[in-house]
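Below: protein 1.
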Amino acid sequence: CKIIGICGICTIASDLGIITSNYVANAMGLVSNSWEATEKSTNKHLMREAFERCGDPSPRSIPVDGETDLSSLRLDYPIIVKPTDRSGSRGIFKLEKPEGLEEAVKAALDAGFEKKALIEEFVEGVDISMVYVEGLGAMGPCEIDCNALFYDYEMKTVKDSTVDITPAKGQYQDLKEIVMKIIKRLDIKGYAKLDFRIKNNEY
């Protein structure tokens, strides 16, 4: 890459490519997000830990893997089970009761690359997305109405024509401030999309 004089590396339309592009860019001394920022922004458990340390709004979660004794966990249902390192809402399950927990965890582990998952509290509310662009700051928000339990992988792909995305009403200045804190916390450069759930003006 250095021999042919590459001056920049980017990924388009896929979160998965971020890991490789940032790794190569860092190795070549090109402009990119740091490896630490890449790990925290692509691994949900590391991201949750960063948020928890700083008191940022985030669902409570428990990391699990194939060796975890699920019967020993004290869980408040409903819950969400998801892989730690997948994007696009792949491999996510909602459970209203303990039945099916083992199967959901196994499916989430199988869907992930590092074979780890999170069990987290289910947060009700309105789906809101915001965008951060370096130099411009926090932009949006947009409200997502998909008439479904949550904005999952199917809704983001094959059923995207059924999803209604509109500018959210209100100023949301406090949410924009939270976005800027998160960007600083994760040390993200360039661009980021952030998703929230809002209920009774709480995030």
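Below: protein 2.
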Amino acid sequence: EEEPERAAAERLAGEDLRGQAAVLQVLNEGMQSRGGMLPEQIRDWAVDVAGKLIATKQPQAAGDGIALARGMKLEPLVEPLTRVAAGELGLGGQRADAVSALVAIEPAKHVSLLSKLLGEASEPMPLRQHIANSLGQIQQPAAHEALVTQLRTSPEELAVHIAAALATSRAGAEQLLAEVAAGKASARLLQNPLVNGKLGAT
């Protein structure tokens, strides 16, 4: 039997899944602003709603599901989010959002997947650039190593984003400078405003 909080919220949201997702986002944001956590039955409802939205494979609906999964850090949805990010569900326009959701939920566990996608020349360049930025947010040695590895062979339009991602932390910036000093990365990258500005802030 459903708990009163969930039943009341579902009555408010109605039967439309996207409407339910919107209500859940508002509930989550309100609870976060107060420094609290939503009841488990509300999170279970969110997992159900977001999972169904992603399963529709409809861009707008799936986008709402991905946004809900990211906002509430819904660990049970890592598998479908991984499939979206990898391009397995045909949701090309939602792949970057799925990457962001995975990084928000379990950053360290997805470095391998993100590194693989980053190095895949057949992937769209905007997605690869977004992945580079996402790896930079993880701030862990494995993520830095993945960025450095790809930096050595990436075209400049991607290398700039990889260098900027490394430059967001002191450890990453040191690795970037070492790669340039060793001649494994172009010194021109350091002159790019996207990179230079971040280096100056670390």
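The mean pLDDT is 93.
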